[in-house]
Amino acid sequence: MMDPKVNDLLPVLAKKLQNKGIATIRFDFNGHGLSDGALDNMTIYNELEDFHAILQYVFDNLQGLNKLFLIGHSQGGVIASMMAGFYPDKIDKLVLMSPAATLVDDARIGTCMGINYDPENIPKKLKFDGFSINDWYFRTAKFINIYKIAQAFHGPVLILHGENDKIVNNYAAIHYQAVLDNSKYYLIPGSDHGLHINRNEVYKHTIAFLDE
């Protein structure tokens, strides 16, 4: 997550799930939060590798699991959806919060979080407020078929998106609902990309979905 204000979304959810008897494993992708690495080396591919490493740890070390759920916010939701597509036989349910699958179209037209660039002449680094993203991220992102990979997963999916999200258009969530044949989609009233507003609605829907 590149927005530090979002950081308490999943930790608070984890505590609420723990109270329902659902254990969680949370991690920061490379270059994010407390993880090693530089954010400007981030790509979709190395975040897939990060998530794969976590799943391998779970498969190898946590025996006797009854069910396995994946939850991801923003780009983390994109990665979670793809991992569910890669492991449809291992994942039981999937929760996507403000999934940022628009990143593919954005990379093709040359825009990212309000900053525009020439997609045919991508700068070495694109600078934002307090961080930067390298050109390899954009060069590779435009060719990723997120939805095709995700739709290999046929288990239950919950999709949540803020009504006033200014970073990711909710057509990404709507498209996910269209291609994921066992999905529910809720628009969170008045909320933004970080789902700061009406966050209790996020927790209510997520806990009910995972507990059913």
Can you describe this structure in just a few lines?
This protein has 212 residues and is α/β, with parallel strands linked by helices. It has helices spanning 9-19, 44-61, 75-86, 103-109, 135-141, 146-150, 171-179, 199-211; strands spanning 69-73, 93-97, 111-112, 115-116, 125-127, 132-134, 157-162, 183-188.
Keywords, please?
212 residues; single chain; 8 strands; 4-stranded parallel sheet; 8 helices; alpha/beta; two-stranded antiparallel sheet; Rossmann fold
Description:
This protein has helices at residues 9-19, 44-61, 75-86, 103-109, 135-141, 146-150, 171-179, 199-211; strands at 69-73, 93-97, 111-112, 115-116, 125-127, 132-134, 157-162, 183-188. It is an alpha/beta fold and 212 residues long. It has one domain: Rossmann fold (3-Layer(aba) Sandwich), CATH 3.40.50. The chain has a four-stranded parallel β-sheet, sandwiched between helices. Strands 3-4 form a two-stranded antiparallel ribbon. It has a two-stranded antiparallel ribbon with strand order 5-6. α2 (44-61) packs across α3.
